[in-house]
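dumping this here so i dont lose it
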């Protein structure tokens, strides 16, 4: 395994931690700034929407620059944003810090996915992407629970100081371990990269990413409230329950990456279908503690098992101009994050209860399932009509 993949995973760990740890600390943050649950949820949604801006804007702006220095610059942005959140005296300043940190997110994962794929043979690209995203899943298995504990015992700001420190470590790792792979300037043309979006399959892939990820986050964004108000868990157990979700993410990412190297579309069909089943069962049995524990584990596993396949799918259909499409897909993950958080918040605001985000997530996932089926059918027809167009199913 190339050591550069470890460095990318370290960066993914820090970025994943700042994205997800806020969910376990949401009640503390809301209380500190004296805002509602829905307003606090915008620290998640605002972050996610800013990821989209960074994924497209920063990736496009740096498309012709050497990728290693760009990754370093993105991590500097990440450190500045999280430090600002840590010292924020108002909700607005905290939001600004979240936005600054989020700008690096999409471009880092988008460019990092291409760098990771370049390090390995063609038949191991999804696995290499999965290794980078292992940092993201490790952030959920280890970082989020312990970050939540730190925030509960030492104040939520201490968690963001710790995240800033991890950002520094990631910066050193990128400098030391990621090779400076150079590409000919003509091979990285912004016009060519934009041209990848003329592919219908690229747009369908983005749609599956938004809806598939949105379904999981529709259920997960307000999970702290579901666990304490519906299932009856004590607030002190929430970090450990989040660790179970993280274990599911880790396992799903690892298994999904290996399955996607064999068949991307069939892998996505399996994981999205399984996620839908889990969310429906979770909606019915959210009041049962044993069922909830299992639902958290499998929701994480099936939800994140799609990630390597989704990232590989869009890079496949973007052809030899994958960088901007890869960044756009990272943005799509976070549009899904924002969609899920917003939709789940609507359910709570409408006083439908703390299980309503789960049912809303299930509905979004059902639409994702329909879209991937449509994409598979169209890809099959295109490959039959034009044999040079290779489907990934």
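and the seq i came up w/
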């Amino acid at each position: 395994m190339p050591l550069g993949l470890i460095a990318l995973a370290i960066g993914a760990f820090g970025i994943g931690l700042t994205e997800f740890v806020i969910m376990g600390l949401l009640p503390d943050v809301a209380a500190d700034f004296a805002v509602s649950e829905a307003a606090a949820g915008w620290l998640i949604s605002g972050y996610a929407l800013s990821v989209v801006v960074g994924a497209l804007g920063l990736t496009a702006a740096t498309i012709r620059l050497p990728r290693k220095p760009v990754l370093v610059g993105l991590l500097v942005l990440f450190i500045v944003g999280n430090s600002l959140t840590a010292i924020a005296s108002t909700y607005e300043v905290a939001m600004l810090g979240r936005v600054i940190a989020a700008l690096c997110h999409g471009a880092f994962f988008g460019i990092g996915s291409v760098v990771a794929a370049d390090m390995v043979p063609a038949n191991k690209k999804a696995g290499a992407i999965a290794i980078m995203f292992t940092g993201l899943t490790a952030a959920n298995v280890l970082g989020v629970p312990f970050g939540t504990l730190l925030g509960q015992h030492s104040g939520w700001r201490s968690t963001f100081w710790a995240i800033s420190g991890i950002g520094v470590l990631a910066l050193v790792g990128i400098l030391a371990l990621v090779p400076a792979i150079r590409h000919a300037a003509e091979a990285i043309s912004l016009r060519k990269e934009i041209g990848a979006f003329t592919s219908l399959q690229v747009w369908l892939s983005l749609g599956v990413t938004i809806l598939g990820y949105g379904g999981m986050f529709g259920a997960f964004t307000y999970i702290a409230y579901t666990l304490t108000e519906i299932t009856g868990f004590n607030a002190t157990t929430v970090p450990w329950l989040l660790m179970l979700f993280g274990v599911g993410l880790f396992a799903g990412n690892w298994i999904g990456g290996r399955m996607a190297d064999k068949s991307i579309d069939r892998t996505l069909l399996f994981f999205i279908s399984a996620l839908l089943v889990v969310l429906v069962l979770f909606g019915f049995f959210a009041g049962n503690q044993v069922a909830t524990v299992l639902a958290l584990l499998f929701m994480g596993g099936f939800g994140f098992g799609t990630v390597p396949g989704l990232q590989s799918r869009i890079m496949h259909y973007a052809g030899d101009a994958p960088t901007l499409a890869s960044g756009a897909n990272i943005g799509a993950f976070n549009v899904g994050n924002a969609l899920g958080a917003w939709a789940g918040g609507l359910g709570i605001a409408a006083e439908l209860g703390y299980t309503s985000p789960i049912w809303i997530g299930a509905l979004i996932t059902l639409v994702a399932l329909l879209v991937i089926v449509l994409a598979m059918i169209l890809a099959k027809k295109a490959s039959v009509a034009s044999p040079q167009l290779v489907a990934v199913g």
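The chain has a mean pLDDT of 85.
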